[in-house]
Amino acid sequence: MRWIADLLLAVVIAGPWIQHAGAKPQFNSVNKYDINGQPCPMRTRTGNLCPQMCVSDVQLCPEGYGDDSCPSGQSLCIDGTCSDACGDIPARNNPCGCKFQYPPEDAKGLVPCATFPDVTIEHYNADDLSQLTDFCSDKFNVSGSAPFWGDWSGDQELPDDTEVSSGRRFWAGSQCPKAPKYGYTYKEPLWIGAFSCVGAEVLILLIWVVYKYLREIPIRRMRHGESSGFTTGTASAAAAVSSEKITAKEKPADVESKTSKASSDDTGSESALLVKGFKNDFLGWIGFTSVLLVSVGWIVWIGFWVGDYYGTLGEADSLAHYDSGLLDETIIPIWLFALVWLIVCCIFQRRIRNFFRIECLPSEGAYVQIERELNEMKVSSASSKIVAYAKRIEDGFSKLTRSNFHVKTCRIERTPHTNLRYFNYMCTRYVLNEDTRQFLPYKFDLGVVNSQLRRHADGLTSEEALSRFELIGPNFISVYVPNFAVAFVLEMSQFFYLYQIMVMWIYFYWNYFILGVVDISIILLSALVKVFVSVRSELRIKRMAEHSEPCDIRRDGKWQTLSTIDLVPGDVFKITAGMHVPCDAAVLGGNIVADESSLTGEPLPIRKFPIRNDQGVFDQHGASKINTLFSGTMASQALPTTATDGSVSEATGLCLHTGTQTDKGQLIQDILFPQAISFIFDEQLRLVFCILVLYAIIVFVLAMVFYQTQPSAAFIYAVFSMSQLVSPLLPAALVMGQSVAATRLKKKGIYCVNLPRIIMAGKVQFFNFDKTGTLTNEGLEFYGGLCARQPDEVGAWTFDSFVDSFTALPELMRTAASTCHAVAEVEGGLMIGNPVDIEMFKTTKCEISKTPTPGALDTIIVPDQNLKLDIIKRFEFIHSRASMSVAVRDPRDGHVHVFVKGSFEKVKEHLDSTTVPGDYIYAANRMARQGGYVLAVGHRDLGDISVDEMEHWTRDDMENGSELVGFIVFKNMLKEDTPEAIRKLKNGSTRTIMITGDTALTGVFIGKQAGLMSEEATVYLGDVNKAGSITWVDVDREEEVDASEIEQVISGSVDYDVELAMTGKAFNLLIEQDQIRRYILFTRVFARMLPTDKLAAIQYFMERGITAMCGDGGNDTAALRAAHVGIALSDAEASIVSPFSSSDHSINSCVELLIQGRSALATSLAGYLYLILYGQTMTFLKIWSFYFSLSASNNIWIWIDAFINTLMSICVSYSGPAKKLSKYRPTAQILGPQMLTSALGTVFINFAFLAGAFGWLYRQAWFRCNEFDSSAMDISKWWLLADSYEAEVLSIVCLFQFVNNGMVVNFGYLFRRRWYRNYALVFLWAVYVTIISVVLLAETNWLNCRFRINCGTKSVLASEFDLHPSFYIEDYSNPLGHNVIPTSSRYELWGICIGNMCATIIWQLAFALYPVHSYTRKKTPLRRLQIKL
Fold first, then answer.
1. CA–CA separation, 254 and 418 (whole Å)
2. What's the pLDDT tens digit per position in 729-784?
3. Which residues of 700-720 are buried (b: 16+ CB within 10 A; e: fewer)?
4. CA 850, CA 950: separation in Å to the nearest integer?
5. Measured between alpha carbons, how far is 824 from 834 in angstroms, rounded to an integer?
6. Cα–Cα distance measured from residue 1116 to residue 1113, given in angstroms and rounded to the nearest whole number
7. 402 neighbors 371 (Cβ within 8 angstroms)
8. What is the SS3 assignment for 476?
């Protein structure tokens, strides 16, 4: 074992090229010359200097130091103490053995005399042993002469007055020769047991590898294509669950019902899955158990030797033949082997269990191992060759260890009735398809048209429901959240913590026990913070995901009360008011109002209508959205409806999808298993960590160089340095800042479900807004109407003059306004529906009857005419047609009137062209240009027609051929605070863009009002003409613009204020032509955009920079989810539609989000910078310690790690956000110019002042010739190395630097409050500076003696300084006996430290942050994306 330790240490030391240095400074001689260059005089030394006298008979001891030195009745024992019974004292306690395990024969029988008391020797020369022995002989009347221990043939002269005629005596004790090194025979039972365990493990692993190889030959052949039976193995299984849908064969009749088909479905993940099957094996179980036992065994084994160090298993060092050096050389290789073993287990922890199983086909295994590649979304705004190179190294390591895959092992189970094999992964059930032999998630296709869905109105049989239940599993998204203890264990199993914990074993071993407890507490605190934040977030998701309640389900033709968990596709269930919709369902009957705010962010309840019994295509995310109830929403109202024949239709729904196949389920999946995002912050953080590791290795080598005389001690000191350079608080620093920011956002009514997105909000470059309900008020105000008429039977249709009074409109227009809508009134009188429809209906002063006429969908009461109008058919508004229509029966003549209402462009397509005035588009655009929300209204009189005749009419059948009634116009008013919020965003260097479904001209008008563009800006609007190409028109001049002028705009060569706007058609055409990327950054308004168009626009912006989206939900959902930063203006606290939701419907929430995001980013960087500066300061402290072979005191280490570092790290994160957005965004580059300027400048200044402090020290007369000489010390006893002037100066300077580093990173007011507003940090800084100043400047007191500063041995303090402290002081180990600095010199040193603090603060303020940095930024700006704000 010893040769292994020597070999390892020799490799690290790097061989013979290093000159032998010893444990003393290499570039200066200790105590050789005084300040004037004269040789140092011999000093007077006081203490227990006289060697131990060892004799063959106590009668040879000097008088008073033999048996006569003991009280009456006691005798002098072999350990030099007096006792009544000396027989139980072990022989090894005899100092005359000189700690030799096997003393020479001549030393046997020697016993010690009583220890001589302290003496004072003037002109003491440690190298002149004769001076020492002569002095001690004279002092204690040692007559005769005696050689030193080991000089067995030396001349001896016994005293004449002794009664012993012959005998031997020697000087021993401090003059003992170095004990010879003893090694192990490795035949000791301890080593035999250890080698047996290791050998057994190696044998078990070898046997298992060979056995596994032979057993897996068939599967390897399949993998290489030698057998077609591998179709369900890795490759095809991955394909089966890739992003493409692969339909399995239809199941037999017991799985099908009413044309429904069971088909495979994708997982919703963005990468393919690699699936492998495994079987248990008894031999593998033995192998896996052995790995667990060996892993635990390594820890126990280390603990065993640590216990031997402290003597808890017997006497100290007993297992190492009482040789502490041998114990060091034993534990180091054991620790290294254990570290390597545990790191390997940590890297492969998710695969190791299956390594000890036999691989087989997934369809035949008892377990499946699923691997999903972790594809990162890269949003880096800058890059460098160094970062790219580091990323390549990381990618190479990831591919080597396959750590770039998320690995999960799932148990294969069987369903209780059909005995199907399945497993659950990502909250989804995968069932073995017996035809294809693949595990697939199943999805039931109930039909693609409304009539097919209607056929399922009778529900399922119990057998059908059971079969489907076993195929797709329970309708319940079970979110596993480990309890706090389990989550903590999982966190601690990560590599970073594993490494830190292993280092703590070295701390505990080498008498760093107290400091080890402190550092382990810091590590645990860091982990606890992360676990607390993580578990709290997961529990919130769990509350959103998991829900069940009783539900009436139609089974076997009758209603049964079951749980919503039992629902399967094809089930029909009752919908009741207040019910949380348990699945995605098609409405079969009833009058239903749904609150979708928690799912989509839509602030107003939405009315849902039963699906028709026709051939219309059912698209739950398109035209059929108004017929669909979504899982996770709430049914605010559910009322039955009455048909013309008097039959009542209850509120019922047809279950379409359950579990993770619902929209809610997929959102929950996205939250639980998010795609990794690679922010530039994260990219460079990896490189910084690598730099710190390399730097730690350099420090490691320096320790080995300076401590060559004791390589084992050097190795342990080097491990200490590495552990302190990479702070254990690093993992918690970022999480802490994000958590504080999330708490502040919550107080502002902004809720966050994805903490990492907070710092991304700090780098937002593009902020996109929906218009209606976001920039403008939710509701509209009636503005007026413009009606069309035909002057005579043959004349062209024209517009009348604009009417701003609703009552002045023709009756036909008023009737259209009162009936052509989908407004409903719920309990309490609240009206729900489209905000435009609500405002329009309120303007009519009509009422909705609470009891509609039988057969009517709604009955509208016109009070002033005492008239009831029955709506007998309705086609609701859909985005693709941008219109809606109703059929209304007028009881006065029985005629059915059709009214169609919608965007003037779309309605025109259904109008009788002869009724359309020639200035139709011009008139509509004129009102839109003034900010009007323009709706066109058409009309048809069908005469006296029955409802049955219209039952199967399509929308086109009902709407085509309508005559124009005119335009009804509303004003979309801005929110009062919108212009101010937009101004703040633009002042904050954020480009604001509008993406709306409204008309382009209205968008331009609102955009100018809101301040997205100036009132004077020229706006060019792009739209697709009849020829299928894009035409650009000047909005104000209404003139076509030449394409060359548009090219000048997008090339940035125009010298006037110009903005671009485009319609959805133009947007899609540019996508088809692959030209959209040239226009995207120059377009201010995107109009007539469908939800899919909004999503595409966001994705194009995301290619160019950090992109945010703000909307009120509904048709913004996809865009809100896709954006880097999405914020839904929703009342729902836990909306899962986007990372952020705000209960304050003002876009000031967007401003607040950016303020907090920038603050969180700046604070996170400050926290990291502080910990890096902590590591650098610690490095200086360590390098100086290595060079001089000294150390700070134990209490100083505790104070640094437990109080300064931990508390200041926490306080840095509490720096508040700035009051307003700065024109700059904070840097996200840890290796950017600003961070490097701050860090390197501070490091250099600290280094210079530390070096200067030691230069000052070597110019002090009171120091020279009193220097610390470590060559006379055992440097493994680190606690003895703090009692010197060098250690005192080093400790004081570094303490000031540690404290001031926190203040340095606290500066900066652009993104955070000014430094003095961080009250906790400023208070802590002031307290620490005061304490350190008191410790340095005050006379000897209890506090500075605890730190071993300006203190000394009591007797020395009394004799030298006339100080008589009453508290306990452990004796100083240095020859001087104290390290009290003269008063004037203390103030000089204090001035150096204060100067150091001032210099770093000035550097930070003048160079890193403000004047110089600002000047440099202006003169040499970084290459950034140039965009018009």
1. 10
2. 676 666 777 888 888 888 888 888 778 888 889 999 999 998 877 888 876 788 89
3. bbbbbbbbbbbbbbbbbbbbb
4. 25
5. 10
6. 5
7. yes
8. coil
| Angstrom distance (rounded) from CA 1416 to CA 1233 | 10
* Cα 526 to Cα 534: distance, rounded to the nearest angstrom: 12
- Residues 683-696, buried b or exposed e (16+ Cβ, 10 A)? bbbbbbeebbeebb
**pLDDT given for residue 526 in this prediction:** 75
Confirm if 133 and 172 have CB atoms less than 8 A apart.
Answer: no
Find, among 409, 465, 467, 433, the residue nearest to 265 by Cα. Answer: 433
Alpha helix ranges (H) inside 789-935: 811-819, 835-844, 904-908, 920-929
Of 636, 633, 631, nearest in space to 578 by CA: 636
DSSP state of 881: T
Other Cβ atoms closer than 10 A to 918: 11
pLDDT at 1421: 59
- DSSP letters, 1366-1418, are -S--PPP-STTSB-PPPHHHHHHHHHHHHHHHHHHHHIIIIIIISHHHHHHHH
DSSP 8-state class, residue 863: G
Residues contacting 518, CB < 8 A, separation 6+? 1197, 1198, 1201, 1202
Q: What is the 3-state secondary structure (H, E, C) of 1187-1230?
A: HHCCCCCHHHHHHHHHHHHHHHHHHHCCCCECCCCCCCCCCCCC
Taking the C-alpha atoms of residue 43 and residue 396, their distance in angstroms, rounded to an integer, is 62
Distance CA 726, CA 693 (A): 8
Measured between alpha carbons, how far is 245 from 686 in angstroms, rounded to an integer?
A: 37
Res. 438: pLDDT tops 70: yes
Burial of 951 (0-12, 13-18, 19+ CB in 10 A): exposed
Buried b (16+ CB within 10 A) or exposed e, 1116-1151: bbbbbbbbbbbbbbbbbeebbbbbbbbbebbbbbbb
Q: Which pLDDT belongs to residue 160?
A: 62
Are the beta carbons of 859 and 852 closer than 8 angstroms? yes
**What are the residues whose beta carbons fall under 8 Å from the beta carbon of 1218, sequence distance 6 or more?**
1155, 1158, 1159, 1309, 1310, 1311, 1312, 1313
Q: Maximum CA pair distance of the chain?
A: 157
Output the pTM of the full model. Answer: 0.77
Q: Tell which residue, 1335, 1373, 1376, 1344, has the closest CA to residue 1190.
A: 1373
Report the candidate in 1024, 1429, 1035 with the shortest Cα–Cα distance to residue 1221. Answer: 1429
Nearest 5°: CA angle at 1112, between 1110 and 1115? 95
Asked if the model's pLDDT at residue 1122 lies above 60, the reply is: yes
Section 464-486 average pLDDT: 90
Q: Which strand ranges, in their side-by-side order, compose the sheet holding 428-433?
A: 413-414, 421-425, 428-433, 438-440
Token pair of 1282, please? 């703090």
Give Cα 582 distance to the centre of its chain.
Answer: 32
The CA–CA distances, whole Å, from 964 to 171, 816, 901, 928 equal 124, 12, 10, 18
Strand runs labelled E in 841-922:
847-848, 858-862, 867-878, 883-889, 896-903
- Closest listed residue to residue 470, CA positions, set 532, 414, 522, 428: 414
DSSP code at position 610: P
Which residue, 620, 265, 694, 285, is CA-closest to 443? 265
- Distance CA(964)–CA(333), nearest Å, equals 92
| Token pair in block for residue 1335 | 């410790």
For residue 1206, the one-letter residue type is T
What are the tokens at 766?
Answer: 């593009």
C-alpha–C-alpha distance, residues 358 and 365, integer Å: 9
pLDDT greater than 50 at residue 668:
yes
| Chain centroid offset of residue 159 CA | 80
3-class DSSP string for 724-748: HHCCCCHHHHHHHHHHHHHHHHHHC
Indicate if the alpha-carbon torsion angle 283, 287, 293, 294 is positive or negative: positive
